[in-house]
């Protein structure tokens, strides 16, 4: 078994076509090129990672907000890597195997303690 070759992945029970996310990223004016892959986060769960090429430093939170306007939440990448250029194969196609792994430790959200009584009640449930 060598996996799917059509760039469809399953994350949190949702089937996701990675090219749909890439198309939406490419429509953003600040993004020159984009590739989306699935990775494992710090907890061993599958997650989406967006690799983007842009002329200037990107605000990934802003990218995520813009994507959330056109895509469901489960299709918005959790991790981001900005590159100067995408690695390509001898055929000129994006070499997904050569993409660097994101720093999942640095991008994993830090714990924020419950601030209100309601938040504490909800936190106690989980």
From TrEMBL:
UniProt domain AMP-binding enzyme C-terminal: residue ranges: 20-93
GO MF entry, a single one:
phosphopantetheine binding
SUPFAM superfamilies, alphabetized:
Acetyl-CoA synthetase-like
Q: Which Pfam families match?
A: AMP-binding_C
Q: Which UniProt keywords apply?
A: Phosphopantetheine, Phosphoprotein
Q: What's a single GO CC term here?
A: cytosol
**UniProt record, GO biological process:** amino acid activation for nonribosomal peptide biosynthetic process; secondary metabolite biosynthetic process
Q: What is this protein called?
A: Lichenysin synthetase
